[in-house]
Description:
60% of the residues lie in helices and 14% in strands. The protein is of the alpha+beta class.
Amino acid sequence: MKKKTGLKKVISLITIQCLVIVGVCLLLVPIFNNLKFGLDLQGGFEILYKAESVDGSKMNSEKLTATYKTLVKRIDSLGVSEPEIILEGEDRIRVKLAGVKNPEEARSQLSTVASLSFRDTEDNLLMTSDVLKAGGAKVGQDDAGRPAVALSVKDKDKFYEVTSEISKTEDKMIVIWLDYNNLTDSYEKEGNQCGTSGSNCLSAATVSQGFASDVIIQGNFTIEEVENLVDLINSGSLPSKLVEVSSKTVGASFGDNTLEKTFMAGVIGIVGIILVLIGIYHFAGFISAVSIMLYTLATFFVFWVVGGVLTLPGIAALVLGIGMAVDSNVITFSRIRDELHKGKGLSTAFRDGSKESFGAIIDGNLTTLIVGIIMFIFGESSIKGFATMSIISVIVTMFTMVFITRWLIGMFVKTGWFDNKTNLFISVKKKNIPNVSKGEEVKVVPFKNVNFLKYSKFAILFSMIVIVAGGVLVGTKGLNLGIDYKSGTSIVVMTEDKVTKKDIKADLTELKLESSSIEIIDEEIDIRLDKALGEEEVKEVNSYFEDKYDAKVNIGVVSNIVQKELVKNAILSVLVALVGIIVYVAIRFRLSYAVAGVVTLIHDVAFVFALFAMFNFEVSSMFIAAILAIIGYSINDTIVNFDRIRENLNKRKNKKLTVEDLREEVNLSIRQTFDRTIYTSLTTLLPIIALLFLGSREILTFNMAMLFGLIVGSYSSIYISVAVFMLLEKGNLNKPKKEKKIYTDEFQEKKIKGINC
Length: 757
């Protein structure tokens, strides 16, 4: 009867979970469709401007903010629904316009110097911003103490002449315009819209007399309206210009193709992970699949709530995040299986296994979060998109893949139906569970005959050979740097026409350009130029290939200014990530673990650089994003091993340890975590392999770096990190500890009374 009741509960719980999966799939569609997509997924263009003063004065954050307000107003008139305008430093503005219909028109309109003019109500020009001091608009107050705009006048004679004439007119109105267009703008049509975001009319003020000094524009303004008006007036009166230092143009159809490929690769990768989990862990794998669906929904939902813009690197981070999030389940499942192998019942094994795995999961995710935050702070453009999704993934992982999964497993364990069906539940055969009450010993010791440390010296030798060979190649030939790190222009042409390298060289000769490389794969032509093309050259190249080959064209330009900044940020972000991790691991474990962990990370980074040098793969900004992701993944892998080593050593903390004892405990720890390392690497590799074969070539560099990094990270956590740890710990073995003075009661009594002893 009890079995039947348990079976009914199991069936009802499975039914509910199947309904949850269906519900998640139905909810994912509208959430995904309502996300904001970046220009690499829907076409558009991105420009990085350097703001410069025409009169040679230094730009500052105040002037840059004023220019920003002008750009916002101009973009509103372009009809772009989700623009991104980002201030960088004190003299740069990055503009991303996804989905813009006419990139060249937008580029032209954005880069024009802001024009401020004063007109009457019949739109006749009265004076320009020349009458005002540069940046002379300030937040002020009228006689009643209400917010107002204070204007500093430079040409007082001209200002007095104009205001005197206006004060004698019937309506006594002077209208301030920003970027007045005589074809579309007029006070008659826009008078009631002055001051709104959709109009170039900034303000219409009444003039009662002539003014030969600084003046106040007053009205029923709020402080926010005054601040906005001040910025707009200043942007029109500043002698500044916007110089384009880098750009990227993506055709709409090019973006659609990229989204379709990446989405399909992601789906296949997720399905692959689910099948592997079910194959390894049976019913527990099915529960994990439900968690993956909830994780995906929650990640997209949080991303939508925070207003994130989904980019190609963001999707890559999500797919990679799913693979890494599964690690939380793998660690928990491995611990439950360990407890079952000790002879514990399913309920006890679940409780103890969940408890024992929690620390390793927290440590691994927090180190990954540290790397994500560092990427967000120091990264530019696409790397920020990757970092945003990575941070969200870690936070959602902690909720869904830890708490939700455990809650779901706990419900099935409580039914009691799986107590004698551990193989069905979590792939542990009954014959491998010892009967402790009868004195049976543990029958299953994973990889009990493997001496992992024995092979560490060969692994270290192999790593040294690869890294030195890579270093020699970098020193003699250099890395194959993308335009991000050496400046220049990237042109990607997609066409169904049969085109050869000879044809492209002829085309470039006609365009008076010289290529550094030309690569043709299927219908995609990848052209690299050492020269950073200007605005007019980009237009010419784009039109040429579109007209001649009926092609979809994607052009990216990076100047020397941006290249230097990217190189600096790349080095800084990697160094800060390493420091952040060493501090965290030193606090959570101890210094020997932290040093071993960071040496392993440096090894992994150097190894991947060496492989890229050997295979001549391109090193771009996405490669640096992959390196940072590898650092997060690798330390996560290493920490799981360290967590088990610490646990096993703590069991013998009151015993005198020899080097051989230490070696055995470290070997045992690797054996106990080896299957988890393999399973996690496999589930994380599946989406990366899917992206490699089915995804866009734009993230090929990222995928190759991740493929190398995941393999190297798993290898180093087993062989390199423990070897370094052993080396450091040998010196600490059985060091005499400082003996604490043991005071007698008599001594304490005298001390209390203040008697010197």
